[in-house]
TrEMBL record:
<protein>
    <recommendedName>
        <fullName>Transferrin receptor 2</fullName>
    </recommendedName>
</protein>
<dbReference type="GO" id="GO:0004998">
    <property type="term" value="F:transferrin receptor activity"/>
</dbReference>
<comment type="similarity">
    <text>Belongs to the peptidase M28 family. M28B subfamily.</text>
</comment>
<keyword id="KW-1133">Transmembrane helix</keyword>
<dbReference type="Pfam" id="PF04389">
    <property type="entry name" value="Peptidase_M28"/>
</dbReference>
<feature type="domain" description="PA">
    <location>
        <begin position="238"/>
        <end position="300"/>
    </location>
</feature>
<keyword id="KW-0735">Signal-anchor</keyword>
<keyword id="KW-1015">Disulfide bond</keyword>
<dbReference type="Pfam" id="PF02225">
    <property type="entry name" value="PA"/>
</dbReference>
<feature type="transmembrane region" description="Helical">
    <location>
        <begin position="77"/>
        <end position="99"/>
    </location>
</feature>
<keyword id="KW-1003">Cell membrane</keyword>
<dbReference type="InterPro" id="IPR036757">
    <property type="entry name" value="TFR-like_dimer_dom_sf"/>
</dbReference>
<feature type="domain" description="Peptidase M28">
    <location>
        <begin position="415"/>
        <end position="611"/>
    </location>
</feature>
<keyword id="KW-0812">Transmembrane</keyword>
<dbReference type="InterPro" id="IPR007484">
    <property type="entry name" value="Peptidase_M28"/>
</dbReference>
<dbReference type="InterPro" id="IPR037324">
    <property type="entry name" value="TfR1/2_PA"/>
</dbReference>
<keyword id="KW-0325">Glycoprotein</keyword>
């Protein structure tokens, strides 16, 4: 945000003209200056005191001329004509300006006219009475062009463009130039030096079957040498093979209950299951395994015989850092001028990890012996009898050996920014962003999101040129190194962490915006959940014509909220903004229920394959996402009071209270009381309701009062960042969405041990968890009430 603040001072208005001008006169004929005496002529530019005095002066002069002798008659007529022309021109210009501000048609960049409905949303008139919210919605829809989105995706997916590569730098330069062509108020870059991991150019990652003595029996080709897991541990791992299903915590718990020996073995895990690659590797490391191989199972992708063979040969690359940002500068920014001591994230794995194809996984798993797979673990690999291992059936002592030789390399990252300055509250920003980089062609991973980002920037720029006056500033961002764990975005957050809750209204991520065409998913902070309800009632479903997204979703078995609203997840482009920065964030996506587009993070992620799956409607779906995000941005940039639901966490706190009530007898037996939690929950609920009622009954035209309310609303997520854990050791400090001992999920999981396994319940640890969560909730209630100094607030 420092970059934002400094950039806002770059374009100061030009100084006023001096009261006189100095002209240099040239001598005739030779082109040289005349002598010193004649070289300068000083001319004073006198100005009348007012327009009235100007017209009065002109009138008296003309009258004098008319009354002069007849020989001056022609001169008088000339001056009279000139005066009349001046008066007419002035009146015409004033009338044009006044009329244009009331005009119900605005020309777009294609010289078309946008019809405006005067009846729409008359209660939401913008500043100066220029345009209503209904007019702005029509303008937004008119300017969004699906063909421009498709064209940009095609341009981006012609080749790979990882961070630091010539292709990546060329793309960054192109996006910066495109932003500048839009005549934004400000454009700039934010650079960081980050440590990224890449495949070694001299030693390829390997996989082989060896005997008991470690002698090579069979080399197993891995396919594309560029398929890898960034931030994997390096070296070799040798052992038996254990099939771990999706590699979730419950999967490892089940293996433990079945007494499957996993120590030192190599895990084979399926992609998916609701956990990231990083979580799979972390769970395997915690269970004592020596390495992890991760493959995409055909059972988890669309059943299309035309693509099955291609998919079976694909390996999916993804990072395995259990965190985000540069893992060698955890909690602080990777600016090149910082001198922080060497450190590294605790989320970096110690064991090697490597992606493999379904064909390679089939070859390995078909040789396993041991207990049969539990129900639901059977995938759809060809010729595989589902056993858990760890022994191989083809010979005593046979083992698998994997080798990972990735190397770390410092890379200069460039985040690209463009902003439209707000007219009333320019220091408050609504941020829209998308990652730009991609290991492969990246049509779905980075191309669609970047294309929507550029189209939204173009659309809002055109709207401003045609009468839109945003109340708050809009910030469009193209992030670098998203494939490595949202490194570019996280480093920027770390650089401006102390002021985010004062500057950032909300963040919208466009990453992976189109992976299907049937269902809309909103991975969101609860504060933004109500905002999306309004826009899905206005946007037509891109696949089911005649239905809005809302009406189509309501026609299904579940309500729209159950079907659309999803919790933020670790690898989301929006997660760090909320869990680390305390900013409400959302990531929108069209997808399928369980089997989305299967080629993300592979070298097969091209526009042609994405179009094939979506029947040529990438532009249509991209435009729908752009319209949804654009309408939400419009509300946030337009409304006097930010339309965020501050009461949303009351239900979360109530759920915690009910969980504690279930274990009241066990807690009382240990001298523990949840009374303070109940009190804090009640205080937060009353503070939120009081603020909501105050806003409903206030005058929204009172700029001072709305500013105070908006400041309190913007800080709600920030209030839930625990102040009692280190941002370096525990970066995701949010007690409801974060990760670590301080979170609500950790507390409830620990609480469940009172009945499932009382011997593992740690009373001292639980007391600490309960105390930290209680005071964080109480602090949020105090801050939301508006008087943080009074610890005895009447709620």
């Amino acid at each position: 945000m420092a970059a934002i603040s400094s950039s806002l001072t770059e374009h100061s208005p030009s100084p006023p003209h001096p009261p006189y001008s100095i002209f240099r006169r040239r001598a005739q004929g030779n082109g040289k200056d005349e002598g010193e005496e004649d070289s300068r002529v000083e001319m004073k530019l006198s100005q009348p005191e007012s327009e009235e005095s100007l017209m009065s002066g002109l009138s008296s002069d003309v009258t004098t001329l008319v009354l002069q002798q007849p020989r001056n008659f022609r001169k008088a007529v000339f001056y009279l004509t000139l005066t009349s022309l001046l008066i007419f021109t002035t009146a015409f210009l004033l009338g044009y300006v006044a009329f244009r501000s009331l005009c119900n048609y605005c020309g777009d960049t294609d010289d078309e006219l946008v019809p405006v409905d005067d009846r729409a949303d008359l209660d939401y008139s913008s500043e100066g009475g220029r345009m209503h919210l209904g007019e702005l919605r029509d303008m937004l829809r008119k300017y969004l062009k699906e063909e421009k989105i498709e064209s940009m995706v095609r341009r981006m997916s012609r080749e790979t463009h990882p961070p630091g590569s010539s292709e990546g730098n060329a793309l960054a330069s192109e996006i910066l130039q495109n932003f500048r062509k839009l005549r934004m108020d400000h454009t700039w870059t934010d650079s960081h030096y980050a440590t990224l991991q890449f495949p070694s150019r001299t030693q390829r990652n390997s996989l082989a079957i060896v005997d008991a003595d470690g002698e090579l029996l069979e080399d197993i080709p891995l396919g594309n040498p560029l398929d890898y897991c960034a931030y994997s541990g390096t070296g070799t791992a040798t052992g038996g093979i254990v099939y771990v299903n999706y590699g979730r915590k419950e999967d490892f718990d089940l293996l433990r209950s079945l007494r499957v020996s996993v120590g030192g073995a190599v895990a084979v895990a399926r992609v998916g299951g609701g956990v990231s690659f990083a979580e799979k590797v972390w769970h395997a490391q915690q269970a004592g395994l020596g390495g992890v191989l991760i493959y995409p199972d055909p059972a988890d992708v669309p059943q299309d015989p035309r693509r099955l063979g291609l998919y079976s040969s694909a390996a999916i690359s993804e990072h395995v850092h259990l965190g985000s940002g540069d893992p060698f500068t955890p909690g602080f920014p990777s600016f090149n001028h910082t001198q922080f001591p060497p450190t590294q994230s605790s989320g970096l794995p110690l064991i090697p990890a490597q992606p493999i194809s379904a064909n390679v996984a089939s070859k390995l798993l078909s040789q396993l012996t041991g207990p049969e797979c539990p129900r639901g673990w059977q995938g759809r690999l060809p010729y595989v009898h589902c056993a858990l291992g760890p022994e191989l059936s083809s010979g005593e002592g046979r083992r698998v050996r994997m080798g990972v030789y990735n190397i770390m390399r410092p890379v200069l990252l460039n985040n690209i920014f463009a902003s439209i300055e707000g007219k009333i509250e320019p220091d408050q920003y609504i941020i829209v962003g998308a990652q730009r980089d991609s290991w492969g062609p990246g049509a779905a991973k980075a191309g669609v999101g970047t294309a929507i980002l550029m189209e939204l920037a173009r659309t809002f720029s055109a709207m401003v040129e045609n009468g839109f006056y945003p109340r708050r500033s809009l910030l469009f961002t193209s992030w670098d190194a998203g494939d490595f764990g949202n490194v570019g975005a996280t480093e920027w957050l770390e650089g401006y962490l102390s002021m985010l809750h004062l500057k950032a209204v909300a963040y919208f991520s466009l990453d992976r915006a189109v992976l299907g065409d049937d269902n809309l998913a909103a991975y969101t902070s609860p504060l933004l959940a109500d905002l999306i309800e309004g826009v899905i009632k206005q946007v037509e479903h891109p696949k089911h014509s005649g239905h809005t997204i809302y009406s189509y979703t309501e026609s299904l078995e579940n309500s729209w909220r159950t079907h659309i609203v999803k919790p933020l997840y670790l690898n989301s482009g929006a997660y760090s903004f909320t869990a680390f920065g305390g900013v409400p964030a959302m990531e929108l996506r069209f997808t399928e229920d369980a089997r989305p587009y299967p080629f993300v993070n592979t070298h097969f992620d091209t526009l042609e394959r994405l179009q094939e799956m979506l029947q040529g409607r990438v532009g249509v779906l991209g435009r729908s996402v752009g319209e949804l995000v654009g309408l939400m941005v419009l509300r946030l940039a337009h409304d006097h009071i930010l339309p965020l639901d501050v009461t949303c966490y009351s239900d979360t706190a109530l759920h915690l209270s009910s969980q504690l009530n279930k274990f009241s007898s066990e807690l009382q037996a240990r001298g523990l009381s949840p009374q303070w939690v109940f009190s804090a929950r009640g205080d937060y609920h009353r503070a939120a309701e009081t603020l909501r009622e105050a806003i409903l009954n206030s005058d929204v035209q009172d700029e001072r009062m709305t500013r105070l309310y908006n400041t309190r609303i913007m800080r709600v997520e920030y209030y839930f960042l625990s102040q009692y854990v280190s941002v370096v050791e525990t970066p995701f400090r949010h007690v409801l969405h974060g990760r670590g001992e301080h979170t609500l999920s950790a507390l409830t999981e620990h609480l469940s041990l009172l009945r499932s396994n009382p011997r593992l319940f740690d009373e001292a640890r639980f007391r600490r968890q309960l105390a930290l969560l209680t005071w964080t909730l109480q602090g949020a209630a105090n801050a939301l009430s508006g008087d943080v100094w009074n610890i005895d607030n009447t709620f």
